[in-house]
Amino acid sequence: MSEPLTGRKAKQHSSTPRKPPYQISERFRYYLRSFGREYPLPINYEALEHFQAAAPLYDDEGNDTLWESVVYHPNEMDTLSKGLKEVYAILKAGGELAAMEHLYVDRIDYCVFGNSKPFRIRIVNSRNDNQDYFYVKKADASRIYGLELEHLLSPNRMFFLTQEDTLIEEHILGLPGDMFIDQWMDNKILKAIRIAKELVKFNERCFVRLLGDMRPYNFVVDITPDFEDTQIRIRAMDFDQQSYDGRKNFYLPQFFKGNNPLVEFCIKHIETKTAYQYQREEQALIYRRMNVSSLRLKSLLRAMAAEDLAPRENVLQLRKELADHYENDAFKKCESMGALVRQSLDLIIEKAKS
Question: How far is CA 69 from the centre of its chain?
């Protein structure tokens, strides 16, 4: 469906303009309630905004992480800690608080850099010092559509909850893409062909469901030792740019300058025919996932197609570029980003049945 990663060089895009947040419509809210995503939460985003001080957070090498550790009044922190532990219990243990008594909130970080201005909560197990994270963000409809499409169409299950203007997201494990490129891509324990194959499949998943802006810091690489080899999977961790931009190439990770080393690695290790084979494999997997969640996906796309999730000019530009790319005028009839996603997925169905 997308252009293969072999035989061409990635191109750099200009900096991405900040996307405005989109409200959750009543239609979409009904969907979220129907499928267990809307949940009565003990704490909301607004409660975390009342911090008294903040200090920059640096990594082990002294680099600014763009996160700030925030401090609250002691009395307020007690209330926040209780509520945040309950949220974690809902995410991880179905709300069973008894299983969370040995946990405590170790740190709350805040990032102004992200569109959703997220708070990152670090939870620590007092018995063994094991730590975990989750995020409290401002709810944004397009981001939530992105999370739900990832859950339904990718090999990854996504755990998140919403209530009114608050979004709770679990932490996605994996090496940040830029760290993988700098430190792991040439590691001898990883087979080059597996890295190249996964990049082709990831590129295809993003393009088919129109998830944009997959620069290296917006995806992670999950490395899993197997009984004979080491498996890898590239997965998105930022869904802010779900079906917003008007440029077709914005939805193809291969065209971001930061991904050039991965693209060149891919070109070096697989041929064009092999790349097309891996694309076709991913399309077949997406088709199977669509069949498994057919009714839920139809309900999601029905709500999404009725939404205004991008400026009108973005929709017009993208539908023209997709129509030209696929040589299919059906895209020119789409009036929303959701309709474009649905049309893109319809092509997967047509191809599977042909």
Answer: 24
